[in-house]
Design a protein that fits this description.
The chain folds into two domains: about 80 residues, Glutaredoxin (3-Layer(aba) Sandwich); about 150 residues, Glutathione S-transferase Yfyf (Class Pi), Chain A, domain 2, CATH 1.20.1050.10. It is about 50% helix and about 5% strand. A four-stranded mixed β-sheet has the order 2-1-3-4, with helices on one face. The radius of gyration is 19 Å and the shape is globular.
Length: about 260
Amino acid sequence: MSRPTGLVASKGIELLTWSTPNGFKISILLEELKEAYGLQYTMQGIDIMQNVQKEPWFTAINPNGRIPAIVDHDNGGLAVFEGSAILSYLTRRHDPERRFSFAPDSDDYTRAESWIAWQHGGLGPMQGQANHFVRAAKEKIPYAMQRYVGETERLYGALDTRLKDRDYVVGDGRGKYSIADIALLGWVDFAPLATIDLAKFPAVLAWLRRCYERPAVKRGFAVPSLGSFSAYRGQEPEAADKTRELTKLVDQAKEQYGYKYASP
């Protein structure tokens, strides 16, 4: 894949993304819209390890210098960034039958907004910080590790409670698959990166497997390429060994600071 230097499409949706939890939420929705309605889109892989997202052409699209972002060439080249805003925009314009969303005047629309905001302001940032301090930080800081892993576990407990008697996060009865689920999928599937064992949250794990049965979900997780960590597909032996090693460090940090799991 060549290094992008600017937009390449002249019509339709152009997706600028990478294989991250936030990136997957948009590629999954676009694949669902493609399957349901025939919506076509153009994708460019933005390698965040090479800081492509910091280049001037990209920050002209997203001033925050983060993926994902889309440009709607059929709407005057409108740029939309931040995952929750993109999910809302795409379903407003391209989901006329509300297959993946809810009518704006319905209570479920508001419930979906609540859970998407919960992901955007809670699960994503907390799990992201857990990922950083457990995996990326050169110095392993016990307090930071137990603080962010613990808060991430608390949030998974809240989600597990929500899903105990439901198939999907929002909707009548047992729920309807929607952008409330799509917003969560990438983060939940990447749980092992933060040493989160989804076996402790059986309703969440069952939900993840249920969603992964959708062909568009599988395709979306491969845009632009499959991630290295997956609670659904599992990890390569070397990665699994590293996760076990890091889990021991996190457990030691929890013991050091007297961490006790509680949710909510």
